[in-house]
Every structure is written in C-alpha cells, then in structure tokens.
C-alpha cells in the first residue's frame, strides 16, 4: 500500500466537549493488484485522527472504493495501520 496523495482538515469542536484535537485525513492509496483491497478505480481511506497530550492515535477509518463511492467492509492489518499513523503524524509536523 502506497499513499499517493492526501488532504487533511482539522475538525473543530465548537462545544469544547472533545479533549485534544481531531483531524480528518483523506488518503489516496495505491494497492497491489493481488491484494484483496485492490479495485481498478482505486481506493481511498478516510482516517479520523486524535491528538492529545502530544500523542496521536487513529480513532476510526473507512475504506472507500472510488468509482462507486462505496464503503468497503475490510479491516486493515496492524502493519498498515502503523504505516498510516506514521504518515499522518509526519504530515501534521510539516503543517
């Protein structure tokens, strides 16, 4: 899995109920053709990232098939989640 493009937006909490910060990442990913996640039109992963006390963590993620804009019912492997978390942390430090 290679992340080819991304966008990030901070999710603001006007009520101040949520502690820390929240971000939404949209990751455009390239998947090997032999992977079960592979779709010809491509997929993107929507990641909700939390940040509190200097630590970042994935709150939730959604895998979306781009052609039909449908959610796919797959779970990412721990290694893939670690790669995504590292990518998101690096993107926030460059911001």
Number of strands: 5
Amino-to-carboxy terminus distance = 23 Å
Instruction: Record the strand order, biggest sheet.
Output: 1-2-3-4-5
The residue fraction in helices comes out at 10-25%
Largest sheet: 5 strands, antiparallel
Rg from Cα: 14 Å
Shape category:
globular
Number of helices: 1
Give the amount of beta strand, in percent: over 45%
Low-pLDDT runs: none
Number of domains: 1
Mean pLDDT across every amino acid position: 91
Helix/strand order: EEEEEH
Estimated structural class: alpha+beta
Pfam families: DUF6509 (PF20119)
InterPro entries: DUF6509
Protein name: Pullulanase
What do you see in this structure?
InterPro entries: DUF6509. It comes from Lysinibacillus contaminans. This is Pullulanase. The chain has 95 residues and is α+β, with helices and mostly antiparallel strands. The chain has one domain (2-94). The chain contains 1 helix and 5 strands; from the N terminus they run βββββα. The chain has a 5-stranded antiparallel beta sheet. The longest helix is centred in the last third of the chain and has 17 residues, at 78-94. The two termini are 23 Å apart.
